[in-house]
C-alpha cells in the first residue's frame, strides 16, 4: 500500500469508488521539456487543424472527430492548456483531428506517418526539419530509429507525442502515448520509487488500491518491483531510467516514445533498460515502443529499425537489414 502521506502529495484525496481512469493523457515525463499537450492520434493536417477531446482508443478519437467538426464537443479548457471533461471531472488533453481521419482499427500498425512536414525556427526564419517523413511501425514491436545528428529523430518523436504540431502530412497512431527523455534526472522527481511512478496518476480519480496496482505492475514490467519503496536518489542511472519508463507505463500508454534513454548509461544499465523495454513489448502486445538511438549495438533488441537522413526516413527493415544498410554508408556497425 502507498503511504497515506503519499496520497496527499499525489493529489489523490478525491477518491470516488467505481470511477475509473478514463482520461487519455499524453505523458511528457520531463517537466523541463513539457509543452502544451496536443495528443497527436489522428492528424491529417490541413494548414489550420482544429482541436477536440481525445479519449483512450483509436476508435473513440475518430468518433470524436465528427462532433468536433460540428463544434459540439463538450470539452473545455483549463489553465494548464489541457482540455477538461466535465463528465467525470477528469482532465484530458486536446487532440488535433481532421475531417480526413480514416477509421483503421484493424490495422496491424500502431503508427502510420505519411508525408509529414515541419519547419522550425524563429517566426521570421524557419527551416525544414521534417521533409516528408513516411513511416509504419507494427503494433507491439520495439522499433528503433537511427540516423545522424540533426536528421530529425527527436523532432519526429515529439510530433508523434503531440509535443510539436506538424505543418502538413498524416499521422495515425495508437493513443495515448508516453514520452521518456534522455536524462532521467529531469524525470524522476519524487523521493521514492513508488511516489515517482504514481506521480502522473495524480490527475485521475483513482482508489488507492488502483494506484498501488498500477505502480506495482508497471514496476514489474521494467524489472523494478523490488525497488518500489527505495529512495530514488539511491538508484543508478539505468534504474532511474526504468523508473521513468514505469511512470509512463502506469498511465497505460499504447505508444512509448523513448528518446536516447541510454546516452548517459554504462553498458550494464544500457542493457538493463533495453531489456525492460523489450519485456514490455513482449508481455503487452498492445504496446509499441519507438526507441531513438545512436548506439548500433542496441539493434539486437529491435524488432525493426528505420534510418533517417535530412528529415526523412530513407530505410526501414529488420535489424540485420538495417546493419547492412548502415555498413554500406560506412558506419562502424
Ligand atoms: N525548436 C527548434 N527550433 C529550430 N530548430 C530546431 C528546433 N528543434 C530542433 N531543431 C533543429 O532541427 C534539426 C533536427 O533536430 P532533432 O533534435 O530532431 O535531430 P536528431 O536527429 O534527434 O539529432 P540528435 O541525434 O543530435 O539528437 C536540428 O538541426 C535542430 O537544430
UniProtKB/TrEMBL annotation:
It comes from the Eukaryota. GO terms for molecular function: ATP binding; ATP hydrolysis activity. Pfam families: ABC_tran. One of its GO terms (cellular component) is chloroplast envelope. Residues 13-92 are annotated as: Disordered. GO terms for biological process: transmembrane transport. Coiled coil: none annotated. Residues 111-333 form the ABC transporter domain. Gene3D superfamilies: P-loop containing nucleotide triphosphate hydrolases. Residues 59-85 have a biased composition (Low complexity). Keywords: ATP-binding, Nucleotide-binding, Transport. InterPro entries: AAA+_ATPase, ABC_transporter-like_ATP-bd, ABC_transporter-like_CS, ABC_transpr_CbiO/EcfA_su, Molybdenum_import_ModC, P-loop_NTPase. This is ABC transporter domain-containing protein. It comes from Chlamydomonas reinhardtii (Chlamydomonas smithii). The lineage of its organism: Eukaryota, Viridiplantae, Chlorophyta, core chlorophytes, Chlorophyceae.
Amino acid at each position: 500500500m502507498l503511504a497515506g502521506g503519499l496520497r496527499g502529495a499525489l493529489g489523490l484525496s478525491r477518491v470516488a469508488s467505481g470511477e475509473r481512469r478514463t482520461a487519455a493523457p499524453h505523458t511528457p515525463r520531463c517537466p523541463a521539456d513539457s509543452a502544451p499537450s496536443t495528443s497527436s492520434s489522428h492528424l491529417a493536417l490541413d494548414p489550420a487543424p482544429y482541436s477536440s477531446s481525445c479519449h483512450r482508443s483509436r476508435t473513440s478519437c475518430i468518433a470524436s472527430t465528427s462532433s468536433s467538426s460540428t463544434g459540439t464537443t463538450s470539452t473545455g479548457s483549463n489553465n494548464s492548456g489541457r482540455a477538461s471533461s466535465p463528465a467525470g471531472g477528469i482532465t484530458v488533453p486536446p487532440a488535433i483531428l481532421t475531417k480526413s481521419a480514416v477509421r483503421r482499427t484493424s490495422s496491424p500498425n500502431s503508427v502510420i506517418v505519411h508525408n509529414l512536414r515541419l519547419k522550425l525556427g524563429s517566426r521570421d526564419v524557419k527551416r525544414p526539419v521534417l521533409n516528408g517523413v513516411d513511416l509504419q511501425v507494427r503494433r507491439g514491436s520495439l522499433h528503433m530509429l537511427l540516423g545522424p545528428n540533426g536528421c530529425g529523430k527527436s523532432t519526429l518523436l515529439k510530433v508523434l507525442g503531440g509535443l510539436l504540431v506538424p505543418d502538413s502530412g498524416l499521422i495515425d497512431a495508437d493513443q495515448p502515448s508516453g514520452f521518456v527523455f534522455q536524462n532521467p534526472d529531469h524525470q524522476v522527481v519524487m523521493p521514492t520509487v513508488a511516489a515517482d511512478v504514481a506521480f502522473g496518476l495524480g490527475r485521475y480519480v483513482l482508489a488507492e488500491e488502483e494506484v498501488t496496482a498500477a505502480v506495482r505492475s508497471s514496476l514489474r514490467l521494467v524489472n523494478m518491483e523490488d525497488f518500489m519503496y527505495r529512495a530514488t536518489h539511491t538508484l543508478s542511472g539505468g534504474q532511474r531510467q526504468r523508473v521513468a519508463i514505469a511512470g509512463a507505463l502506469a498511465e497505460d500508454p499504447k505508444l512509448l516514445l523513448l528518446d536516447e534513454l541510454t546516452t548517459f548509461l554504462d553498458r550494464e544499465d544500457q542493457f538493463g533498460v533495453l531489456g525492460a523495454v523489450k519485456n514490455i513489448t513482449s508481455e503487452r502486445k498492445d504496446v509499441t515502443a519507438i526507441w531513438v538511438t545512436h548506439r548500433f549495438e542496441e539493434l539486437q533488441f529491435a524488432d525493426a529499425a528505420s534510418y533517417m537522413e535530412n528529415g526523412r526516413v530513407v530505410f526501414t527493415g529488420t535489424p540485420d537489414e538495417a546493419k547492412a544498410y548502415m555498413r554500406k554508408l560506412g558506419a562502424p556497425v
